[in-house]
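We close this part of the discussion by returning to an individual protein. The encoding preserves chain order, so positions in sequence and tokens coincide. The sequence in question and its structure tokens are set out directly beneath this paragraph:

===
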Amino acid sequence: MKPVTSRRHAGFTLVELIITLAMAAILIGIALPAFNDFMRQRAMISRVNDMVVAITYARSEAVRQGRAVSVVAAAPTPVPPLANEWGGGYCVVPGTPADCAGADVLRRFEGFDDATLTSSNGATALVFNARGLLVADTPIVIS
């Protein structure tokens, strides 16, 4: 005859499951706003880096080509309260400021709708001369 042994059932009770789900919901509720702020911050850093890339590229192309190269706002809206000169996108073009719709665009950068990138004085272009220096009458303050 076999000895009788009691089997212990493994698993979770309904109360344990509800408590675990409640704790998970509380943790997600705390973490989600911080994650959204983190994502917004990363998007803004990406936009700033794109602007730095555009400026660096324009300078290097000006030196390489031996002529002026410009970073131009693609769709400027300089009238307040909608001022977002650079938020509609921008491009790098050879020569003095030109339209971003032209065929001679060296590189395009996408715009964005959820942020504003404006200059302090309504500037819609940065021009670099053949030596890679910012042309003296080009406003350089971007806020």
